[in-house]
Write a structure and sequence with these properties.
5-stranded mixed beta sheet, about 50% helix, alpha+beta, single chain, about 10% strand, Cytochrome p450
Length: about 425
């Protein structure tokens, strides 16, 4: 019997956690008409699904909730054909590709980026610090990860800004079930533009390699005979633009929002920047920037008393798993440093554990430290509640209007 679980209702988008709790208690595995997928809500089930690559495949799991209209299909045909990216591969193919990409995300390489990320974060804050007020998603939370992932890819700083908008449009295109046709078409046009831009960069790397991720992706998409599969290379690059920007943008937005809702935690971090790592980890658990990830059942699978048929898509609800009362004490409480915090699934589990997790953690730690050190008296501006995007793959504020004390202005901003 299908349960009514409206992921796209404004109430659920604003605060999904009461609905998640009800599902965990009453029907932890259910079929959701909104998504056309089965949904798993408990931590143990979600972790088991993510680890079980034999029965739960990652292939063809990222697609629109609804079938795109003909106008959108016509636009997408002008781009590159849909092919597998690293997040859509199963072992052993995934193992081989992942090994090549690991070279761009070694611990030493990530650690060496801290100084540059700190400099960039301080430059961004300096551009609006004297104003006493800013919309942080546009001025800080988005530009920082865009610049960082662009640098890793090997994209010029002049082009970096384009990738932020393209990633936003890709998020709207994928896993959005409520877009008007004209907005859907615009998002598709943006994604096709990004594909062709990436193809040009990848083509250049195929003849002139560099020490960057684009070169690694060219190598990963080149067969033993030396033939480059451009569609595959573009798919790999698109996934990194998409994930490297959106997830960290929403991590930063959610972290700032949670701190502003908990002034005691904000004040503690302002006094002691070493607390930033714990704040990032609790943000990942408390308000996971990726609410869920999809798998496809390779065989009939029984979870509890529910049988998921072969070929059905399954939405592993990370945001619910991270609030499972069986694992986390008082899960709705924002408690940096909590002893059970390490059990969260924000970066997944198993072979698809997020490749960029150390980079996301580093950016979160640096960004929250810089913001709380430089913007004294940081607070929400205005009376309107923060609104969240209505998509299933990402959870983060649409905008985040904040104010702070500027010398001579006091707290009147």
């Amino acid at each position: 019997m299908a349960r009514v679980f409206s992921f796209f209702s404004p109430e659920v988008q604003q605060d999904p956690y009461p609905q998640y709790a009800k599902a965990r208690a009453e029907e932890p595995v259910f079929f959701c008409e909104d998504l056309g997928m089965w949904v798993a809500t408990r931590q143990a089930d979600v972790a088991a699904i993510l680890r079980d690559t034999d029965r739960f495949s990652s292939r063809l799991t990222t697609m629109s909730v609804k079938e795109p209209p003909p106008e959108v299909v016509a636009v997408l045909r002008r781009g590159f054909p849909r092919t597998t990216s690293i997040i859509h591969l199963d072992p052993p193919e995934h193992t081989s590709v992942r090994r090549k990409m690991n070279a761009a995300f070694t611990a030493e390489r990530i650690a060496s980026m801290e100084g540059a990320i700190s400099t960039l974060a301080n430059q961004l804050v300096a551009s609006f610090e004297a104003d006493g007020r800013a919309e942080l998603m546009a001025r800080f939370c988005s530009p920082l990860p865009v610049a960082v992932i662009a640098g890793i890819l090997g994209v010029s700083p002049a082009d970096a800004g384009k990738f932020g908008q393209w990633a936003d449009d890709a998020a709207r295109l994928l896993m959005s079930g409520h877009l008007p046709t004209d907005a859907w078409v615009r998002a598709a046009e943006s994604v096709v533009t990004m594909q062709h831009h990436l193809a040009g960069l990848l083509s250049a790397r195929s003849t002139t390699p560099a020490d960057d991720l684009l070169t690694v992706l060219v190598q990963a998409a080149t067969d033993p005979s030396g033939q480059l599969d451009m569609a595959k290379a573009v798919s790999y690059a698109t996934a990194f633009v998409f994930a490297g920007h959106k997830t960290t943008t929403d991590l930063l937005g959610n972290g700032v929002h949670l701190l502003l809702l908990h002034p005691d935690r904000l004040a503690a971090l302002a006094r002691d920047p070493s607390l930033a790592a714990a704040v990032v980890e609790e943000t990942l658990r408390r308000d996971c920037p990726v609410p869920g990830t999809t798998r496809v059942a390779s065989v009939d699978v029984t979870i509890g008393d529910v049988t998921i048929p072969k070929g059905a898509r399954v939405f592993a609800l990370l945001g619910s798993a991270n609030h499972d009362e069986a694992v986390f004490e008082a899960p709705s409480r924002f408690e940096p440093g909590r002893p059970d915090g390490g059990e969260h699934l924000a970066f997944g589990r198993g072979v698809h554990f997020c490749l960029g997790a150390p980079l996301a953690r580093l950016q979160g730690r640096v960004a929250l430290s810089v913001l709380t050190q430089r913007l004294q008296g940081l607070r929400l501006a205005g009376d309107r509640p923060v609104q969240f995007r209505q998509v299933t793959m990402f959870r983060g504020p649409v905008s985040l209007d904040v104010a702070w004390d500027v010398s001579g202005q006091g707290a009147s901003a």
